[in-house]
Amino acid sequence: MKKIPYKIYLEESELPKQWYNVRADMKNKPAPILNPQTLKPITFEELRPVFCDELVKQELDDTTPYFDIPQEIIDFYKMYRPSPLVRAYCLEKALDTPAKIYYKFEGNNTSGSHKLNSAIAQAYYAKQQGLKGVTTETGAGQWGTALSMACAYFGLDCQVYMVKCSYEQKPFRREVMRTYGASVTPSPSDTTEVGRKILKEFPGTSGSLGCAISEAVEAATTQEGYRYVLGSVLSQVLLHQTVIGLEAKAAFEKYDEKPDIIIGCAGGGSNLGGLISPFMGEKLRGEKDYQFIAVEPASCPSFTRGKFAYDYCDTGMVCPLAKMYTLGSGFIPSANHAGGLRYHGMSSILSQLYHDNLMDAVAVEQTSVFEAAEKFARIEGILPAPESSHAIKVAIDEAIKCKETGEEKTILFGLTGTGYFDMVAYEKFNNGEMSDYVPTDADLEKGFAGLPKVDLS
Amino acid sequence: MKKIPYKIYLEESELPKQWYNVRADMKNKPAPILNPQTLKPITFEELRPVFCDELVKQELDDTTPYFDIPQEIIDFYKMYRPSPLVRAYCLEKALDTPAKIYYKFEGNNTSGSHKLNSAIAQAYYAKQQGLKGVTTETGAGQWGTALSMACAYFGLDCQVYMVKCSYEQKPFRREVMRTYGASVTPSPSDTTEVGRKILKEFPGTSGSLGCAISEAVEAATTQEGYRYVLGSVLSQVLLHQTVIGLEAKAAFEKYDEKPDIIIGCAGGGSNLGGLISPFMGEKLRGEKDYQFIAVEPASCPSFTRGKFAYDYCDTGMVCPLAKMYTLGSGFIPSANHAGGLRYHGMSSILSQLYHDNLMDAVAVEQTSVFEAAEKFARIEGILPAPESSHAIKVAIDEAIKCKETGEEKTILFGLTGTGYFDMVAYEKFNNGEMSDYVPTDADLEKGFAGLPKVDLS
């Protein structure tokens, strides 16, 4: 058997040429997304004013198994992909485990995460459609950064509505976006009607993601030649992110290896869905078996304590509704530092798969996540993003279980990004000032009370 | 001819197994370093209390051409090396140049720069010698971060004296170091005699690199089992950094290519020396020819306007003296944001090579450097460190010259690191608030006036 290197890099020529649409192999398809006004399944025509045509097609298509990746996107991918599949030899040794641990590392690009995989696709289709630009919202700024880079590459205008408190308190990501030519507006702003309304009602508000989404959607639909784009949750985003899993699978096959357990952090689901889709396809087709584990923060436990129901994807209730595991669009997650996982809902694809017992989910607490992050940083040399560290925590737990049982399992987890812009959270941890928070059942009931009543009969 | 991919990765098995000591091939050797007390060539025994034994040997050896890289260091290198040699196809296209542009990218590791290559070597030798730990100083924090990572790997104590104003104004790098287990002390501090003395004389001072060096050296020499380590300038550091040039050369040879021009930014010289050494060796031995260009900031022009003379390596005058291009150890560079290039002197190896007309040097102004950085970020997708961007600026200039003359030159430059922790500087640039500064001749004369009188006869 070939000796497995620390980092497995595919050749450029081995980059995936198609994205994989896992819905095509699902017996129980995700429920259709609904028009927020009519609460009926939304149509192509109804979605066109908001999203690019080609992306609407991808969003609504649950039967085509593969979509060709346009050459222009492949060329962009070549600047930072294939990303390495890393064998965590040092971590295995430190844990003294018989398990083999691998991680697919998506942090080695300037956006610092996997978000760039979908940003470049969405920018490409906007460019192809002859649009002038796109609008979006961003909280901590990872998605906004990725989109700025993608738009700079294609010469598209990029308008980012950034939650005001992040705009002021996290100026570094804001400046990365500006360096890539994006215009970044603190939200709520006086550039949109909804923004002005909110500012009048709540002068001095520091904003919210829900408000920023509403402003971005208004900006897209009221400017000629603009569309709105989103970085997670949607099925089109999961589709683009399958480049992660396809590469990982190809890298394993090169060495005649196969993971037994696949672990990913889950916020909206884009990284987890992208990582597991090709493997899940094999499981759905009865070809191979895998255990999948979604890891979410205990402070925002959509899978483990949420309800499987139709809900709004945004707090502003302007986006389509999806059937998903949700805490209710009115649920306000606590100030958990893993910003990318503070989302009330979950991809409808992953929700259906979880509902059908095709994957597992666990919720973990923040301080244990940072303990795992620090250990990983010191042993494997990479400072992980707090989001990614949720997966690290559970991968370590599983490897320790293997030590106890003597099983030589092969574990794969997704290392979605780096933590360079999360040092305020690390500082809290270093100072012993970090705490955990788990919502009570009563907290959750408040969120559930706001779930919409949907009747599709 | 094989199609050249965007990124050339060597196999793990092709990692260099020896560092190359360019001094062995130099006809005119660098002048010996001097004991700061006696101003006579310093001996092995005199250096032992400050540096590890093995590193002293490397420092003083100007005849052995190759040093074996210990297996433990190679194993660490495997976590982030071989680093890619990148073909800048997008930049070539954007510049519409017949030149081929390559860069050796050293930024894809958590320290964010090439500094880790020497940090791990210095930590290894300290561990081998049975030491408890090492001390060092850091300004912006790149070197301190790299050393913290290396010490965490070998379980060594790491004490970093960080210039107080950086400690307070740049808390993020400080927190990365703490996450890796280093103790970071704002300098001047009350933990050393020299620190207390300075605090008494200048209460409220925000510190300086010179003061931090003095504290770190005192801490190393007064604690049992500690030594002092340094991240640039020294010949041992250039030796370790030759892993950069050796990998680049091997990658070119894989594709039967050869650079015509090799460009690097120059502060203390560790990156530039490491990149060019193996190519310079061929030039010195008359085997091949290359043009080498050192790029320095116009605000701190050691090569282009300095004197070739013996000088102190630190403003505190506790370290050995070296014969080098220098602006005088009392020269205070302006607040240039390329922190890593704000050094009054230059590696004695590079100084001798420059003195012997074996390489060229140019000085460039800050705003033009940030213009190049922004262009590069948008076109090639990587947000470069301000230091590295000096090399980008000149690489672009050379590529444009090729367009004018029609020459198909092959250009290689060193992309030493990423700019994620330099967003304050980018913000100034984005806001149009950045300015240039070029010292007057009178400014320089003040620095030269402090040069020591050395008589080696």
Automatic annotation (TrEMBL), chains A, B:
Entries under Gene3D superfamilies matching the protein: 3.40.50.1100
Domain named Tryptophan synthase beta chain-like PALP: residues: 80-417
Catalysed reactions listed for this entry: (1S,2R)-1-C-(indol-3-yl)glycerol 3-phosphate + L-serine = D-glyceraldehyde 3-phosphate + L-tryptophan + H2O
Keywords: Amino-acid biosynthesis, Aromatic amino acid biosynthesis, Lyase, Pyridoxal phosphate, Tryptophan biosynthesis
InterPro entries: Trp_synth_b-like, Trp_synth_beta/beta-like, TrpB-like_PALP, TrpB-like_PALP_sf
Class of enzymatic activity (EC top level): lyase
Record carries keyword Amino-acid biosynthesis: yes
Enzyme Commission number, as recorded: 4.2.1.20
Cofactor list: pyridoxal 5'-phosphate
Pathway assigned in UniProt: Amino-acid biosynthesis; L-tryptophan biosynthesis; L-tryptophan from chorismate: step 5/5
Functional note: The beta subunit is responsible for the synthesis of L-tryptophan from indole and L-serine.
Family membership noted in the UniProt record: Belongs to the TrpB family.
Subunit structure and binding partners: Tetramer of two alpha and two beta chains.
Protein name as catalogued: tryptophan synthase
Native source species: Clostridium facile
